[in-house]
Amino acid sequence: MEIAPFTDLITPDVRISLLGTPRIEWAGQSFVIPRRQTRALLFYLATRLQSTPRDRLHLLLWPDWPESLARRHLTRLLSHLRRALPAPEILIATEEEIRLDPHRVWSDTANFECLYATRNPFRRIEALRQAAGLYRGPFLDGFSLPNSEMGAIGQPDAGVMSGGGYTLAGGLWGSSISGLYRVYLPLVMRN
Fold it and tell me: Which of 33, 115, 143, 188 could form a disulfide bond with 131, CB atoms 3.0-4.6 angstroms apart?
């Protein structure tokens, strides 16, 4: 099944760009989330705009901590994120999962993945052109967290969340970007 990219028919409240220097926009204006840890959580959730199990976040953020302590820290971090957002309801948290409302949040990485996954031969070239247009630079360029601030985030060997070309939690950024240019550039050069 092909996933449709975010359309222009719905204007999202929040636009989060993670390809290149991270950028957050609220209602068309640049918006700053003050704490790096809070931004890191927002960026992680925005990468694919899908539900993330709390347990996965515990292991990702605080892999060596007891579950009860990791759970408390995640709850505190979610509170900081809710307070920082102009519309806290875009953050949806249940006992088991956390996500951003995909109807109110646009993410270049989520849109990129949808476009890159287009298999319809009549739409593939245009989808690849649009995906290439989203690329502004390396994933999370210039953003990182010191290891002491948040578990595995920022550790290059963990490949979790850091600028400079690292992947996000084993995502397919390296393969998507290189695959995009491997497939897209020859097609464009032929046309």
Answer: 115
